[in-house]
Amino acid sequence: MNDSKTHWLGLRGKLKNYDVRLGTASGQDYVHDPKHLSFAICRYKFAGKMLAGLGHVIEVGSGDGFGAPLVAQGVRELTCTDIDEEQLSDNRERMTVFKNINFEYYDFRENAYPKTADGLYLLDVLEHIFPEEEDRFMRHLTRSLTPHGVSVIGTPNATADVYASPNSKVGHVNLKQGEQLRELCQRHFHHVFMFGMNDEILHTGFLPMAHYLMALCAGPKQG
């Protein structure tokens, strides 16, 4: 006679036990606002789908590395960069299981990356770059790409700032509306495709009503 409990426990017993844990920021979300993790993971899923099949990809501002495995799953090599040495050290310790991800200190405000990449992405980073640093930062991003490189840039919509938490408002020093993000990206890329996000839903709807903005950029202007 079949027994469903025995069957299920037998299957569960075959699962490998990976010793992984969340990073600091993701752990905060998991305890205090777990739904935000679902929003974040969908942003990384979009980036991963757009960059799938590429060789070398760079994440700019990787934070605690929460979404990096979604992108790494579809590319040959993922270099996750950040300016937080302490966070990078923690990431290296926690995420050794992901063999095609490496974590590296790099400040794109200072220079372009020395090894050009096929693609790069930055999610929840641009809003933390002061406006006077923005143009230099963007130029260094485009010069970090091959001539046919692809970039995904995600940032909260300025029109949704009225609903942001106090902590977010303190950190967000460079919010943009949809057309402002398009204009910025068009100055640095030949092709820009704009998307909006509300919670987990990606769409091509009316950008002022989107909580989050996504720009898919191709053909960096490197002159």
Salient structural properties:
single chain, 223 residues, alpha/beta, Rossmann fold, 35% helix
Helical content, roughly?
25-40%
Please state the second-level CATH architecture: 3-Layer(aba) Sandwich
Query: Can you list the strand order of the major beta sheet?
Result: 3-2-1-4-5-8-6-7
- Number of helix segments? 8
For the record, the count of structural domains works out to: 1
CATH class bucket: Alpha Beta
Give the name of the CATH superfamily. Answer: Vaccinia Virus protein VP39
Point out poorly predicted stretches: none
Roughly what is the average pLDDT, rounded to an integer?
95
Using the alpha-carbon principal axes, give the shape.
Answer: globular
Largest sheet: 8 strands, mixed
Radius of gyration from the CA trace? 19 Å
Strand content: 25-35%
Instruction: State the CATH topology.
Output: Rossmann fold
In whole angstroms, the N-to-C terminal distance is 73 Å
Explain the overall architecture.
This protein has 223 residues and is α/β, with parallel strands linked by helices. The protein has a single domain, classed as Vaccinia Virus protein VP39 (Rossmann fold). It has helices spanning 4-12, 24-32, 35-51, 68-72, 85-94, 131-142, 166-171, 178-188, and strands at residues 56-60, 77-82, 101-105, 117-123, 145-156, 189-198, 201-203, 212-220. An eight-stranded mixed β-sheet has the order 3-2-1-4-5-8-6-7. The model has no long low-confidence stretch (mean pLDDT 95).
